[in-house]
Design goal:
- The structure is a homodimer.
- With about 130 residues, the first copy, chain A, is mainly alpha-helical.
- The first copy, chain A, folds into two domains: about 1-60, Multidrug-efflux Transporter Regulator, Chain: A, Domain 2 (Orthogonal Bundle), CATH 1.10.1660; about 75-125.
- Helix content of chain A is about 70%, strand content about 0%.
- The N and C termini of chain A lie far apart (about 70 Å).
- Chains A and B meet through helix 3 and helix 5 of A and helix 3 and helix 5 of B.
- Chain A binds a DNA duplex (30 and 30 nucleotides) through helix 2.
Chain lengths: ~130, ~130
DNA sequence: GCTTGACTTCGAGTGTGCTCCAACTGCGAG
DNA sequence: CTCGCAGTTGGAGCACACTCGAAGTCAAGC
C-alpha cells in the first residue's frame, strides 16, 4: 500500500476537483506534491491539512491572490507569524462584514417576500 | 428640469457603475429606460426601485440568470406571483445557508488565528 | 496480453459579470 | 463660439477561478 492519498482521493475528501488540485499546486498554493515511482501525486497529511485551511479561505471569499500571499509567508519561515496573523485577522473582519451585509440585504428581500405573501393571502380571500 | 435621474445619478445612488446600468438594461434586467429629447436615459422611480431589489439580489449572490428569470416573471403579469414568491423564498434559503457556511468556515480560520496568537504570546514571554 | 481506469503534462477554453474603448452628440458656462 | 463634460452606441476585452482536451503512462484484473 502506497503512502499518502492520490489526487482522486484528495478531491473526494476536499470537495475540490482533481483539476483544481493540480492547478493549486501549479499556482503555488500547494508545495510540489511528492510523486510515487510512476509519477503520480501522493498527498501527505500536511498537504491535506493545508488544503483544509485553503478551502475555508476560498469558501469565505478570499481571493486566490491573497491566499497565495499567505502561503508565501508560510514558506518564508516562522519569523513572520505576526504578519500571517494580521492577514487572517483582516480576513476575519472582512468575512464578518460580509455576513452582516448579507443579513442586511436579505432583510430587503424578506420585505418583498412579505409583500408577496400579502398579495397572495388577499387573493385567497377574494 | 428634466424628469427622472440620469445614468450618472443612478450610478451614484445604487453603487453600480454607469457601464453596469447600461448592461443591466441591455440584458433585460431593466426595461428600456425612457430617453430625453437628446437620447439620454432618464430613470423613473420604478426603475430605481427595481434596481434597489436587483442590487440586493446580486449582493446576496443571486446569479444574473436567476434575476432575469424573476424579472421575466414580473414582466409577464401579476398572475405568477406565487412563482415569484417561491423564487424569492428559495433564494432566501440559499442565503441563509450561505451565512451559516460562512460562519462554519470562519470558525476554522478563527482556530488558526487563536493558534498564531498562542505562538506569538509564547515568543513574547521568552 | 489486453482492457480499463486512474493518473500524467501542457496548453487552450469557458462562464460570469462586468469594464472599457472609440467615435460621436448635445448642453451649459465663460 | 468654444470648451469640457456627461451622455450615446456597438463591440471588444478583461479578471477570476477554474475546467477541459489530447495524448500518453502505468498497474491491476480478467
Amino acid at each position: 500500500m502506497e503512502e499518502g492519498l492520490s489526487v482522486g482521493e484528495v478531491a473526494a475528501k476536499t470537495g475540490l476537483t482533481a483539476y483544481t488540485l493540480r492547478w493549486y499546486e501549479q499556482v503555488g498554493l500547494l508545495d510540489p506534491i511528492p510523486r510515487d515511482h510512476a509519477g503520480r501525486r501522493r498527498y501527505r497529511l500536511r498537504d491535506v491539512e493545508r488544503l483544509d485551511l485553503l478551502t475555508k479561505m476560498r469558501a469565505t471569499g478570499m481571493p486566490v491572490r491573497e491566499m497565495l500571499r499567505y502561503i508565501e509567508l508560510v514558506r518564508a519561515g516562522t519569523h513572520n507569524r505576526r504578519e500571517r496573523l494580521e492577514l487572517l485577522e483582516q480576513h476575519r473582519t472582512t468575512v464578518l462584514r460580509q455576513i452582516s451585509e448579507l443579513e442586511r440585504d436579505l432583510a430587503v428581500i424578506d420585505r418583498k417576500i412579505t409583500r408577496y405573501r400579502g398579495y397572495l393571502d388577499a387573493e385567497q380571500t377574494d
